[in-house]
Amino acid sequence: MTRTRVLKVLACMAIAGLALGQTGCTMFVLCDGGGPMKKEELGDWLGLAPKPAPEAAQLAKLVEDLKQVKHAGFAGRYSLPGDAASLSVKLFYAIELPFTPAPGLVVKGRKTGSVLVPGGQRGDWLYFDPGKRAAKQFYASEDQWDCLLCWFGRADAYDVATRERVAVRTTGEIGGLWLGWTRVREVMPVDDDGRAGVHPLAGPKVDPAKVKYQVREGSFLLFGLVGWGRVNHTRYLQLLWIPIPIGSAGS
User: Fold this and answer.
1) Own/partner pairs for 40-46, CB < 8 Å, 24+ apart?
2) Which of 16, 55, 197, 243 holds its CA 20 to 30 A away from the CA of 182?
3) Tens digit of pLDDT for each residue in 192-205?
4) What is the pTM of this model?
5) Strands, DSSP E only, in the chain?
6) Are 167 and 159 in contact (CB under 8 A)?
């Protein structure tokens, strides 16, 4: 292979890698948009009205049931204290664990198919630290539906003690393999290192009102070749996988 051809291949690989980074689990991953944001700045959470949390008795039963889930398939430990790099779920399933990574927490969950909705799946997830009885616990409900080249999913996370929503993420895809239209919206707590998830709220002495949030919204076409959306306080246009700030975004 000639040097010119090698350079072309490397260039294509770099573009593809950048495209994957921009259209993957988060949008505009290289942008901070002047954030993160204070809780009072979240407004209507990108138009994602909160779904009701399970009733207290039902939620308590769900929590106890999920703690008994054994390691298999979607169940497992993720980023335990002292072992932050560990991931004992199958790699294929890791991308389907909502609101992770969750450093310092154990994540357990299960998914079941829907009898009433063809292609539908229901997920229930629990994030907790078994070594700290006073630590907060979080429950997440997840609904997915896919049919041929369409896929839609939504996950909402709640503080188990207060039943207050603390995070939300939705994904919609038409066309398959990111070649068509993809839209992702997410509002998630963020820690001091910029990692989004429910873990910034987990400490027993954490004041939820002081925890900051990461707000991302993006729509993409043709594997991210063209896109638009926002990160925190800034709106972006994306052309040739390059995000371009175009103005400020309100709450």
Assistant:
1) 41/251, 42/187, 42/213, 42/215, 42/251, 43/250, 43/251, 44/251, 45/168, 45/187, 46/185, 46/186, 46/187, 46/215, 46/217
2) 197
3) 888 889 999 998 88
4) 0.80
5) 78-80, 83-87, 106-113, 120-128, 138-147, 150-159, 165-174, 181-189, 213-221, 226-231, 234-239, 242-248
6) no
